[in-house]
Amino acid sequence: MNPFHDYYGIEWYLILLAWSAIALGSHFYQVGFVVRLIRLGKDDDRFNSWKQRLTEFLRDWLGQRKVVQDKVAGYAHALIFWGFLLLISDIVDLGTGGLLQAFLSNIQLDGIWNLIVDLGYAMATVGILIALYRRIIIRPAQLKGASIEGPLILLAILGIVLTAFIVEAGNMIGEETKYNTWEPIGVLFAKQMDGMDHATIASMVDISYWIHMILIGGFLIEIPQTKHSHIIGTIPNVMFQDHNPMGTMIPLQTNENNEAVKTDDLDFDNLTLGVNKFADFTWRQLSDGWACTECARCQDVCPAYKSGKTLNPMQIVLDIKDYGREHSSLLLAGDEPKESIVDRFTPDAIWACTTCYACVEACPVHIEHVPKLTDARRHLVMEAADFPEELQNLFNNLERNSNPWGFGAHTRADWAEGLDLKIGEPAEYLFFVGCAGSFDDRNKKVSRATAKLLKEAGVDFSILGEMETCNGDPARRAGNEFLFQMLAETNVDNLNSVGTLKIITACPHCFHTIGKEYEKYGGKYEVYHHSQILNKLRQEKKLKIRDFEDKVTFHDPCYLGRIGGETEAPRGALGGDLIEMERHGTNSFCCGAGGARIWMEEDADKRVNEIRAKEASKTGADCVAVGCPFCMTMMSDGLKSIGDDKPVKDISEIMLENLEAKT
Amino acid sequence: MNIVVLIKMVPDTESRLEIIDGKVKEDGFKYMVNPYDEFAVEQAVQFKEAVGGKVTLVSLFSDNTSIDTDLRKMMAIGADETIVLRQQEYSGNKPSSNARILSETVKELNADLIMCGVQGIDYYQAATGPMIAHFLGVPHVSGVTNLELSGDKLIASRQIEGGLQIVETPTPVLITCQKDMTKVRFPALKDIMMSKRKPFDNREVGSEPGNDVQTTECSLPPARGGGVILEGEGPEEKVDKLIEKLKMEAKVL
């Protein structure tokens, strides 16, 4: 029995054709509309390295690499996704009245194909049931407030699957019932239905078939309008994922070799500073809006969101989509809506970001949240001059004394008094101390410990002394790209004049910026975090260090672990058995200092560092090890304010304490 | 309204300060715009924005140190042009002589309003502004905390010990600005860049004799002694030691 007959004198295929025309027409019209919106964005040439892109696409899209990191929801999704990939061809078969089946049967492949499709339907069913159970029964915290759309769509696709089984089963029943063993689930259904009176079965098949087709058509119409746009949107998103190292930012202007145009040569008449309009974003930043699945993983790991600030990274992404939709007619006509992008994001949200990249790391579909916020900051600082007052001090201090606190630049090397270090001379390594290590009393001790260990191991190194300036990261992450670039150019000139190409630093922000960003400004160096060098010296026995005896936990700095990709060296350098916090390594939780947040006000009841301090405290360790001067400040303050007096020490300090005396 | 703002370049407060043979060693100094003068620039620009006109910056400084970046930033706030008087033997410690030179240039500019900071943070003389007013023969109001336009008159508030004085003055007049007169804006990058296109005039000037006093000696404040951290077993022993020190050494108990 099949549904392929006339209905009240109208052939089934005419009805289907009419419905398909409506559904597909609406679908493609809407997709075209979204594509036109995305194409308003600026160029971002990611149409290269195709082999790598294809591999990543197979791994991340087809393989669902990041999706399945969330075990329940991830595997439920993967089952539905893989199931639909397997069953999708059945739509062609059902839509053509069995032509595909007939064709495959000619070449003896119908059996295998039936099995694949049946398996697909089965996988999808299991996935849908798990997802429904999660949404309706478990209801995890991040789904509170999620719309009813999720369960409704799940029920709809469950309908698509179940109706397919009924049609399949009906196909087996007729004058003479013949079970198709290639369709095991279909057979199960057929066995249930066999024995019913044929007229009932016939109408069941007819009704199922049309429900099936109505749901598929309805789904096609719905896809571009809701979060299900991710079914299409993730394809370009995953395919054109960022190939720059995580955390790197785009210069103000670049030349044909992709190097930054020098500050003196910038063409200000043709320069958009940051983003305040929809079309100021690149196409790839806009496409993020339609790739978002609203899974809320970014929200879950966001220090700003978790500490109760206005920022929700998922909302930022959705803001882009909603803004585009709401103002589409103006935008497509090339006009500017009254509401700007900054208005939509809200300044509070824009300034709350610590640029820790946890959201970007967590996103299964390669959405780039952070650049949207730092681009908005660029607009606020350089174009609108409208930003938190505290940052004005930061900028003035960096301009005048090239450090965030405004200490006299001539006192930069004072920390090294009595250590007899080479200053400004060529050596095998250059120790780039950084501002915190040079001026902040607590962190000066870290610089001294690091220098002592390097001397102990006989490493030939020098420091820049007064020639050193801030690497520029605080200004840059706060939106003052121009100031960043001036600092970067000064540092590159000075580093190149000394000529040492191997750089050691105890600051992950210097590590990231000098190592991964300076190349575009004319400085190509091998940059090491001090833990990498100290670990190497320890492994090579050039430093003889006992394993520590205390109970120690290590807080991974964002710009070393997640963004820098280095989680092993600090642990190797420390030695001994660490008690790990639940979130560590690339999943570490920010201390709250990044993104120039350390120089901005933070409400006493919304402190990121207290959240992290509690996590450190919970381990029961006697000491918290850090590898970043700003983590040092934040973790020390955080522990103090939660009433925990355990000490916070840098990796180098713990190593120095456990250094075996020279034999 | 035609406004002239006088800018003094002063050593950055974080500069290395050394005194050798009773004289300040100046060659390691970095310079910045006197912070009080920034209030004057901001207020002048606000007047210009309200009633139209022009803001001209005038500075007297030595002839060998570049101050373009600092003064361009002031122009980025909204001043229209800058005149720097370059003087070979410039010193910030000669108010009378400096006021004479500056008043000649200011006179040429025919200003309705002349503004500057209440004092320079280098020598704290608070003298140059009033002296210029004297040489120009115009009234002056010093240490103004709030300034408002009222027709062709100005209403100035002065915070004085235990109260507030409000004065009314015709123009032209010279106003010296007290701290927090207004909030100085942070110029947008576009404005900083555009300021490069504004007129910037360096003029050589000679020196004029003035009734200035001679500095005989300078010295730094005595260095503070370092603190002492008392060692001991437990708080009780430490407190005992503290009490003993307060009795025997500090003699306050």
Q: Could you explain the architecture of this structure?
A:
The complex is a heterodimer of chains A (663) and B (253). By secondary structure, chain A is mostly helical. Chain A has four domains: 12-236, Fumarate Reductase Cytochrome B subunit (Up-down Bundle), CATH 1.20.950; 272-387, Fumarate Reductase Iron-sulfur Protein, Chain B, domain 2, CATH 1.10.1060; 404-539, Rossmann fold (3-Layer(aba) Sandwich), CATH 3.40.50; 552-657. Helices cover 54% and strands 4% of the residues of chain A. Chain A is built from 29 helices and eight strands. In chain A, the strands form two sheets. In chain A, strands 1-3-2-4-5 form a five-stranded parallel beta sheet, sandwiched between helices. Chain A has a three-stranded parallel beta sheet with strand order 6-7-8. In chain A, helix 2 runs antiparallel to helix 9 (230-239), helix 3 crosses helix 5 (110-138) and helix 9 packs across helix 10 (283-291). The termini of chain A are far apart. The longest helix of chain B has 17 residues, at 35-51. In chain B, strand 9 and strand 10 (153-160) form a beta hairpin. Chain B is 28% helix and 30% strand. In chain B, the strands form three sheets. A nine-stranded mixed beta sheet of chain B has the order 11-10-9-12-8-1-6-7-13, sandwiched between helices. Chain B has a two-stranded antiparallel ribbon with strand order 2-5. Chain B has a two-stranded antiparallel ribbon with strand order 3-4. Chain B is globular and about 75 Å long. Chain B contains six helices and 13 strands. Chain B is an alpha/beta fold. In chain B, helix 3 (95-109) packs across helix 4 (128-136). Chain B has helices spanning 35-51, 68-77, 95-109, 128-136, 189-194, 234-248; strands at residues 2-7, 9-11, 18-20, 23-25, 31-33, 54-62, 81-87, 113-117, 140-150, 153-160, 163-170, 173-177, 200-205. Chain B folds into two domains: 2-205, 3-Layer(aba) Sandwich (Rossmann fold), CATH 3.40.50.620; 222-253, no CATH class. The A-B interface holds A 266, 268, 273, 381-385, 387, 392, 395, 400-401, 406-410, 482 and B 12, 14-16, 28, 30, 32, 185-191, 193-194.
